[in-house]
Amino acid sequence: MISKDGTEGVKESKGKTRWSLLPFEALEPVVRVLNYGAITKYQFDNWKKVPNKSAYLDAIIRHWVKYRNGEEFDSETGESHLANLACDVLFLIWDRQQKHDIPFDQYMKDLLWYDDYVTELDTKKFD
Fold it and tell me: For the chain, which end, N or C, has fewer CB atoms within 10 Å of the first or last residue's CB respectively?
């Protein structure tokens, strides 16, 4: 596109996502959390393969409670609880985008059902 006077080029950006607004420095600890999980605990993109993301909702709450109670860093990853929390929030955002055709109320019902937790209770021995 050429400007009206023909002297310079123009790039139309109206209505487009402005990625330059994102504070990339703040995302670095979140990426380190992802890297930790991919290398030491799970595998690359393992979080995408988890059938029910409710475990991430629980993790978000656990990290928030620890941070709120004055514990800044997660003992496992070494990163801020907020970085771990943000990572889990990104997983849920991605999951919701993948399931956009499911009504939100149904998505929330599905999200709050945690099959692994029920299995964990069945197999865990209590003293």
Answer: C
* Among candidate residues 117, 44, 111, 36, the one with its CA nearest the CA of residue 80: 36
* Cβ–Cβ < 8 Å for 3, 9: yes
Measure the CA–CA gap between 13 and 60, rounded to whole angstroms.
Answer: 35
Residue matched to tokens 């999200």: 111
Query: pLDDT tens for residues 82-120?
Result: 999 999 999 999 988 888 888 888 888 877 776 665 555
Stated pTM of the model = 0.75
* CB atoms near residue 88 (< 10 Å): 23
- Dist. CA 54–CA 116, nearest whole Å: 9
In the chain, what are the helix, strand and coil shares in percent, each to the nearest 5? 60, 5, 40
Q: What is the pLDDT of residue 119?
A: 55
Cβ within 8 Å of residue 67, ≥6 positions away: 80, 81, 82, 85
Q: Specify the 3-state DSSP secondary structure of 2.
A: strand
Q: Please report the pLDDT score of residue 123 as a whole number.
A: 57
